Amino acid sequence: MPEVPQTANAAEEVAKLGRLSRASTGRGAGWEQWVLALAIGGIVAAPYATLTLPYRSALKTQASVVLAFALIPLVAGLLRRGWWRRILTAPRSIIVGIVMFVAATLLGTAVGLLRANDHAFVAGQLLSMGLLPLGVVAGLALAGGNLWRGYVLGIVGSVGVASCVHLGCWVFGAGVDPTYGRFFFSNKASPASPALIAVNLALAAALWDRRWVRWASLPAIVATLLLILGSAMRSLWLVTAPSVIGVALASSGLRRLATHRVTRRIALAALVAAAAFVGLAVLSRHSHENSPRSVFSRLAKEASYLVIRARTLTQLVGGANQDPDNPLAYRREETQFLLETFRCAPLPAELFGHGLGFTFTSKNLGYDEADGLAPGHPTNYIHNYYVFLLVKLGLFGGLAIVLALTLWTAWSLRAALACSHEPAKTFLLAATAAWVAGLVWSLACPELVDFRMAPLWGYLLAASVDATHRDR
User: How does DSSP classify residue 176?
Assistant: First the structure.
């Protein structure tokens, strides 16, 4: 495959090369990519269908909606002839990882049932853990027709639109709770978690062979980054910045796009976005005259709040702030308590865990019967994903999951380095960066076991396998 020419017209050359490389595979865009894009869009949008419901009731409804959309690619894939062959011919690292992940999940389920853990908690965590390998299998069964392109369109488009909705609601002071602070709706709905994947894969969309996709990727990146900033999730900030910068530096296609012409386009897009924001701000000011909720007042409060959150990062890392309400402090206390629980457990519990659905009492988490936040009530939520694996699945199950994730991430990196054409190479680099960032982020937030994220990770792995097929 020829190198991308270093010309001022690099974007058009990359697009031309993308069309040639896609044509060389003999496969164009197929219905498979649109099925996957639909499923991803439905999963990302699921929380927004429950904005009027209490938190726990919303979770149950979201789980049903996510499961329904997650099954769409699986059913579509099983209806295609030769689905079993597509699954079994996947790279050995992928197959071994799936087997290990499923085995550990079933082990945790069996232990949870034997220990008579709350059946609702067992079922919920079985769903959360099972959706990831289900997503991989569904994607492999559906593979074809440039499935990886469908993943990019689905995740970048849905998260980009959701981010714009959040930003718009913030401008008009509608629905966002509070009107300044963290960009979440009242029942914690937000696309902040999938934004980590979306903002990385949007960089691959910037090398697309269709002009409208390349142009749409710019506002999507801006809106998603603003959403990540506004989420005030400091752990998300810490993993997003190096992953995006790493992809931009590692991708030869993106480096060659960094021409004066492209820079001018980006500057123009930024000016248009700024003008649009000022226009909305003026409109909001006229609609809230003499109101302290005006967009300018909230913008100042928002900036002040985010600066405080950013400043505390150094304090938190240095351990200077020991306030028990501090997120890092109670995460540290939670981890210490659970590790002590593991160390004091009998040998069978150390080896096989306490099972899915295991609960403990936390000073910071727990919900009462009326869905109200009630510290002191039992909770099954553990912030550190690796402590979650150790306590609930034991040494055997936890090690199996970690090895599976390591195999998948290492395979993704090897596939990215071996890929020879754009934008598939940048897609694989972005996918690898998302996996690494997700694994690091899991030290503070268990996004890999969040049922709203698990199928997206599974689809990402299957789409990466499909991207390597397009490169043959």
Answer: B
Distances (CA, A) of 403 to 95, 97, 351, 451: 12, 7, 16, 21
* Distance (Å, whole) CA 43 – CA 162: 12
In a domain, 2, yes or no: no
What 306-310 contacts at long range (C-beta under 8 Å, 24+ apart), as own/partner pairs, is 306/229, 306/230, 306/232, 309/232, 309/234, 310/234, 310/237
Higher pLDDT, 170 or 275: 170
How far separated are the first and last CA of the chain, in Å rounded?
A: 11
How many separate domains does the chain show?
Answer: 1
- 185 phi and psi angles, rounded to 5 deg: -80, 175
Query: What is the residue range of 394's domain?
Result: 10-470
What mean pLDDT is predicted for residues 152-156?
95
Average pLDDT over residues 323-331: 61
Of 69-83, 186-200, 443-457, the poorest mean pLDDT is in: 186-200
CB 390 within 8 A of CB 353: yes
Confirm whether 4 is domain-assigned.
Answer: no
In angstroms, the CA 183 to CA 163 distance is 9
Helix (H, G, I), strand (E, B) or coil at 75: helix
